[in-house]
Design brief:
alpha+beta, Methylamine Dehydrogenase, Chain H, four-stranded antiparallel β-sheet, 28% strand
């Protein structure tokens, strides 16, 4: 009779239990392994390893939830090797057969203990156009995107194997990736077209006058791409020529239509618009002649400002070029210095460092310098013999001075190339942009924003974020700043912060404005478009509409994860032990996470290789 009553009570307990596993929240539960015991005892079903009487009601209510995690967690069961049921002992010596009491670690729901928020639309940033979601790194070998530029209706991107283009009005069209075809890494990307394979693309410039997009490449070539062509994959380049011996690091179109390009060692060249226009007018059959015509027409600015082996501009690599269309000037930025040029006369106006201090001022124009040289030569011819001897002594001193200056310039070049031996790397210039009020803004690796006027005078500086600045873009009275932390900030023309949000989970390396969007490119290759009006009232309306239609465009997957640790320092594990630990269960889980302890002298690499080989 007593056995029947006990069975009825057990049946009631089983009926009252849910078949779903408990939902894990911000608590950590661990259970010690039970030691071998010869006593048989009855296993009473319970919600967890602790009895109900030992778990406070508030902890129990916060720990268990009605959500179904059946596909994530699985129940564990213990069986008796003897095959019979164990007997449950209610005596005073119950602790002899019970596991040690568990501990509960609660982090207060903050930091790493805070459950991540999951929603169809991120609540901490404006809604965006996912032009190209974050691709897996292993799918991007040879296809990493490194630069973007916008026209009125297109978004161009420079990649390691050429360029690709998106028609912005087709961003929501069906189809994915390459011309409607699916390629690994671009399964969810908007339809785009790719060019034929070229050397890695390092920079892009939009030429609206000629309806072209110019690209600078690692092999030293400059290539042109037509905007208005009918794109098919792969589409071909237009005019191209060998511009530099080293990589083309930056290009810009001046107010007078000339093409300026910069390379390593401070090399700066100009390609006059006359020769470019004439080459573009030639037929495709005369492409070789067109390339030769442009190649021979360049103007080497560095050689123009070099006198007796002493160059007035820095030998640092050209980081970026900017055209000041208001004043007709070209800004050339290196990591630690700037040079200011007249876009019409091609004369050097000013050289100054990142602190605004003038390094070399050119007060006389080239014509005045030539007249002065002729005048000095005439004076030397008609002086007396005594004065000739004096002038010979002066010329010797002048030659000595030039030799010392040349040696100093060589030392300066070596120090700059050393990247930090004599300079402060935290102040290196990374980006340059001109706002609508005519002011120039530069961004540094220490997060410093510096504002300059049109003459190269430092006006003021700001520090809105401690991370390095990677890129700029501007639209109207707004300045967009991209940081290495993945944050985008919006500033007004006075430098006041309007808004900021986390745009990507990686560094934002390029920003471009086009077709009512501000497009951001992350270092992992993800592309997003942010509405020009954001942040604003339109964001809340779009967010509510997207949340109401969440089931249309979202997918949920349940993934099993196996997590374990391995003390590598205690010795190399055998293949049998790894197979019993990982091999038998790896087929039932989607992700295997192995943490290594006491890793020294390359043991981590060997251990991970063995684990990967076991998992397969």
């Amino acid at each position: 009779m007593d056995d029947r009553i006990e069975e009825d009570e057990n049946d009631k307990e089983l009926a009252g239990l849910t078949t779903l596993p408990p939902h894990r929240k911000a608590h950590s539960y661990s259970q010690q392994l039970r030691g071998a015991s010869t006593h048989k005892r009855h296993h009473r079903v319970r919600k967890h390893s602790l009895d109900d009487s030992r778990i406070s009601s508030n902890i129990e209510s916060s720990f268990y939830d009605s959500d179904s995690d059946d596909d994530i967690f699985s129940r564990s069961s213990s069986t008796n090797p003897g095959g019979g049921e164990e007997e449950y002992n209610e005596g005073n010596d119950v602790t002899q057969y019970q596991p040690l009491q568990e501990f509960i670690g609660a982090g207060g729901g903050t930091g790493i203990f805070k459950a991540p928020f999951r929603a169809s639309v991120h609540p901490g940033r404006p809604p965006c156009l996912e032009l190209r979601p974050h691709p897996l790194r292993e799918t991007q070998v040879g296809k990493f995107l490194r630069n973007i530029a916008c026209t009125e209706t297109q978004l161009w991107a420079g990649q390691e194997g050429g360029v690709r283009v998106w028609e912005i009005h087709n961003s929501y069209e069906p189809g994915s990736g390459l011309g409607g075809k699916i390629r690994r890494g671009d399964e969810d990307a908007a339809p785009f077209c790719e060019s034929a394979d070229t050397s890695p693309t390092l920079c892009l410039a939009v030429d609206n006058g000629n309806r072209l997009v110019w690209s600078g490449h690692k092999d030293g070539k400059i290539r042109s791409w037509k905007m208005d062509q009918r794109f098919v994959t792969p589409f071909k380049e237009g005019l191209s020529w060998q511009a530099h011996r080293g990589p083309v690091l930056s290009i810009v179109i001046s107010s007078y239509g000339d093409l300026w390009s910069g390379s390593e060692g401070g090399i700066l060249k100009i390609w006059p618009w006359e020769s470019v226009e004439k080459s573009l007018s030639l037929s495709p059959e005369e492409r070789h002649m067109a390339a030769l015509l442009v190649e021979r027409s360049f103007i080497d600015l560095r050689s123009q400002v070099t006198v007796n082996g002493v160059c007035s501009i820095s030998s640092q690599d050209v980081k970026c070029l900017l055209c000041d269309h208001v004043r007709g000037r070209i800004w050339c930025a290196g990591p630690l210095s700037f040079s200011l040029w007249d876009a019409r006369t091609k004369e050097l106006l000013k050289v100054f460092n990142i602190e605004g201090q003038v390094e070399n001022r050119v007060d006389m124009s080239s014509v005045q310098q030539q007249d002065q040289a002729i005048e000095d030569e005439m004076k030397v011819k008609f002086v007396s013999t005594s004065k000739k001897e004096k002038s010979q002594g002066t010329s010797f001193l002048q030659r000595s001075r030039n030799a010392i200056m040349g040696a100093a310039d060589a030392v300066r070049r070596v120090a700059t190339k050393g990247a930090g031996a004599f300079v402060d790397d935290t102040k290196r210039t990374e980006a340059l942009v001109q706002t609508s009020d005519g002011m120039i803004w530069s961004g540094c690796t220490n997060g410093l924003l510096v504002q300059w006027d049109g003459t190269g005078t430092r006006v003021q500086d700001f520090n809105r974020h401690p991370c390095a600045i990677q890129c700029f873009c501007t639209f109207g009275t707004r300045l967009y700043v991209g940081y290495v932390s993945g944050i985008i900030q919006v500033l007004d023309l006075e430098g006041n912060l309007i808004a900021a949000w986390v745009a990507h989970n990686g560094p934002v390396i390029k920003l471009a404005v086009g077709s009512d969007y501000v497009f951001s490119l992350a270092t992992h290759g993800g592309l997003r478009g942010w509405i020009i009006a954001s942040p604003g009232p339109v964001d809340s309306m779009i967010r509510s509409e997207l949340a109401a239609k969440e089931l249309i465009y979202t997918r949920r997957h349940n993934v099993r994860i196996l997590i374990g640790t391995w003390n590598v320092g205690q010795g190399r594990a055998s293949q049998d032990s790894l197979s019993s630990w990982l091999g038998s269960i790896a087929s039932d889980v989607g992700i295997v996470v192995v943490g290594l302890q006491e890793v020294e002298m390359g043991a981590g690499f060997l251990a991970m290789s063995a684990a990967k080989e076991t998992v397969g």
